[in-house]
Amino acid sequence: FGDAKTLRNDNSSRFGKLIDIYFEDMGKICGAKIQTYLLEKSRVVQQAKEERSYHVFYQLCAGADSSLKECIHLKPGQRHRYLNQSGCLKIDNVDDAGRFKAMLNAMDIMRSGKEDQDSAFAMLAAILWLGNITFTIFDNENHASVDDNEAVDYAAKLLKCSKEHLMQALSTRDIEQTRNIVQKLTYSQAADSRDALAKAIYAGLFDWLVDRINKSLEVGKRYASRSITILDIYGFESFEKNSFEQLCINYANEELQQFFNHHMFV
């Protein structure tokens, strides 16, 4: 859920984390707590050429059984715009279907029930269907309406909201003044609205997953006599062409590293 293929690394962690590992008197690990930072949400909706979104999307498409695929209306990866735009659906010598089975096993170990797992996969499918939603310009001011097709049908069903409400949310903006004003969105604004919703859902799903893992691990803290804290964040990177996002990542990493050093050591 937090790792992806980049140009430099087939399994790159795209978030930072602070891990407290608890040990009992005899030195055995008895629990842990994870805090996460700086999840790269933009990767959900857009990747550079030959990069991938988060592994879980491809593993789900490759490894889900027929009943799960039917339940969440999942199509092959190449049918979903959020996955096919970079031209890279597979990684050499990596079995996405096998990794999906390993992930299911890990979820079982972490006491994540089937209902929770199915809900998580439904949200992943909803994100993929949001990416397939398209818009049509209907006037000379570039205002856009949502195309009524299977993408919006399935996205609304998986998000458990009405199709009409979803279409309205993606194509208009409510402005609260002395009275409520509904403003129509332009084509680019509507596309940004769709992508923002997809990123927000994934970030919420990621935070929920970390919270469930922490609840599974926290029982051992009462037996702990000592602990080790590990900070794992992005490395400082500089490319020939650096985006504003890269500047923010580098700045946040340096600040986080200095904050950690000050409070842990100084």
UniProtKB/TrEMBL annotation:
<dbReference type="GO" id="GO:0016020">
    <property type="term" value="C:membrane"/>
</dbReference>
<dbReference type="GO" id="GO:0005737">
    <property type="term" value="C:cytoplasm"/>
</dbReference>
<dbReference type="GO" id="GO:0007015">
    <property type="term" value="P:actin filament organization"/>
</dbReference>
<dbReference type="GO" id="GO:0005524">
    <property type="term" value="F:ATP binding"/>
</dbReference>
<dbReference type="GO" id="GO:0000146">
    <property type="term" value="F:microfilament motor activity"/>
</dbReference>
<dbReference type="GO" id="GO:0016459">
    <property type="term" value="C:myosin complex"/>
</dbReference>
<dbReference type="Pfam" id="PF00063">
    <property type="entry name" value="Myosin_head"/>
</dbReference>
<keyword id="KW-0547">Nucleotide-binding</keyword>
<keyword id="KW-0934">Plastid</keyword>
<dbReference type="InterPro" id="IPR027417">
    <property type="entry name" value="P-loop_NTPase"/>
</dbReference>
<protein>
    <submittedName>
        <fullName>Myosin heavy chain</fullName>
    </submittedName>
</protein>
<keyword id="KW-0009">Actin-binding</keyword>
<keyword id="KW-0067">ATP-binding</keyword>
<feature type="domain" description="Myosin motor">
    <location>
        <begin position="1"/>
        <end position="266"/>
    </location>
</feature>
<dbReference type="InterPro" id="IPR001609">
    <property type="entry name" value="Myosin_head_motor_dom-like"/>
</dbReference>
<keyword id="KW-0505">Motor protein</keyword>
<dbReference type="GO" id="GO:0030048">
    <property type="term" value="P:actin filament-based movement"/>
</dbReference>
<dbReference type="GO" id="GO:0051015">
    <property type="term" value="F:actin filament binding"/>
</dbReference>
<comment type="similarity">
    <text>Belongs to the TRAFAC class myosin-kinesin ATPase superfamily. Myosin family.</text>
</comment>
<dbReference type="InterPro" id="IPR036961">
    <property type="entry name" value="Kinesin_motor_dom_sf"/>
</dbReference>
<keyword id="KW-0150">Chloroplast</keyword>
<keyword id="KW-0518">Myosin</keyword>
